[in-house]
Design a protein that fits this description.
There is one protein chain. The chain is about 15% helix and about 40% strand. By secondary structure, it is an alpha+beta fold. The chain has a single domain, classed as Nuclear Transport Factor 2, Chain: A, CATH 3.10.450. The protein has a four-stranded antiparallel beta sheet. It starts with a helix and ends in a 23-residue tail after the last helix.
């Protein structure tokens, strides 16, 4: 988890995180957050930096042991929304088709 935050800070040096909702039930904690910052690159995004300001959401569920240690973490991020804001997502663009490794040597089936 620490590596993810460090990489996010590399991409978005002015990163701000707000907790929108959080709920604990027994050993599970669900959290919804909003992240915002200015894309400066070199972190989690593999595209050249855009200098655009973005805001995107993430949701995750953590499970803790009886002594309070994190034992499981699962979640998702609105990557499509982030890429749209950065101008790196095209509805019918090259990033929306099959991965090149899924294509036969002589073209699509």
């Amino acid at each position: 988890m620490e590596r993810v935050v460090l990489r996010l800070r590399e991409s978005f040096p002015d990163l701000a995180v707000s907790v929108d909702a959080q709920q604990a039930v027994r050993d599970l904690v669900s959290t919804r957050i909003t992240l915002s910052g200015t894309d400066r690159g070199n972190g989690v995004i593999w595209y050249p930096p855009t200098a655009r300001r973005v805001s995107f959401s993430a949701e995750f569920v953590d499970r803790f042991s009886g002594n309070g240690l994190l034992v499981e973490h699962d979640g998702s991020t609105d990557t499509e929304g982030l890429l749209r804001q950065l101008g790196h997502f095209e509805e019918d663009g090259p990033g929306c088709g099959p991965h090149p490794s899924e294509l036969a040597a002589d073209g699509p089936a």
